[in-house]
TrEMBL record:
UniProt keyword terms in alphabetical order: ATP-binding, Cobalamin biosynthesis, Nucleotide-binding, Transferase
UniProt name for this protein: Cobalamin adenosyltransferase
PANTHER family: CORRINOID ADENOSYLTRANSFERASE (PTHR12213), CORRINOID ADENOSYLTRANSFERASE MMAB (PTHR12213:SF0)
Family stated for the protein in its record: Belongs to the Cob(I)alamin adenosyltransferase family.
The reaction(s) this protein catalyses: 2 cob(II)alamin + AH2 + 2 ATP = 2 adenosylcob(III)alamin + 2 triphosphate + A + 2 H(+)
Oligomer and partners: Homotrimer.
Iron-sulfur in keyword set: no
Organism: Caldimonas caldifontis
Length: 193
């Protein structure tokens, strides 16, 4: 990206278009712009999560993810360029394996709830899924590298796992466990004990 913003209010988007990183202009409702916006929103939600008390390894992981999401957004803004490396997807796989290994097996579906940090992680999870859908929609019409889609898919899974980790971290004095969905099956199982 050769051009850096020197002013924010350029008024060039007043006609309903926006500039991409390669200098081309597209409509603001273009699938590429929608995908870029969803990735940007996800990164902003991660910023809100980072404002919470977090275990240092989780904080470090999330800061790294923010940088990779910026690469992902940059790649989306420059058709034909590659900024997100396969190593970024591998790093999420490794983080998933590490954090998931420390968690108890799920007994039932869990609700997106618990501590504030865990709840924010669930919001990040759902926004990551939306961003993934936007990238898939874009890829149905234009060439898109595989890494952005894969990264968002893994990131959504990781945010689910991190929500479970954060519910157990007890950094706000409230955590302890997942918030389980009270299904009829679970009620029967509990009644049978």
């Amino acid at each position: 990206m050769g051009n850096r913003l020197t002013q924010i209010a350029t008024r060039t988007g007043d006609d309903g278009t926006t500039g991409l990183g390669d200098g081309s202009r597209v409509a603001k409702d273009h699938l590429r712009v929608q995908a870029m916006g969803d990735v940007d929103e996800l990164n902003s939600h991660l910023g809100v999560l980072l404002a919470e008390p977090l275990p240092p390894p989780v904080r470090e992981l999330l800061v790294g993810i923010q940088h990779e999401l910026f690469n992902l957004g940059g790649e989306l803004s420059m058709p034909g360029h590659t900024l997100l490396k396969d190593a970024a997807v591998l790093a999420l796989d490794e983080a998933l394996a590490e954090h998931n290994a420390a968690l108890p097996r799920l007994k039932e579906f869990i609700l997106p709830a618990g501590t504030r940090a865990a709840s924010l992680a669930h919001v990040c999870r759902t926004v990551a899924r939306r961003a993934e859908r936007a990238v898939v929609a874009l890829a149905a019409h234009e060439p898109v590298n595989a890494a952005p889609r894969q990264y968002l898919n893994r990131l959504s899974d990781l945010m689910f796992v991190l929500a479970r980790v954060l519910n157990r971290a007890r950094l706000d004095g409230l955590g302890g466990d997942d918030v389980y969905w009270r299904s009829e099956r679970l009620k029967r199982d509990e009644a049978g004990r």
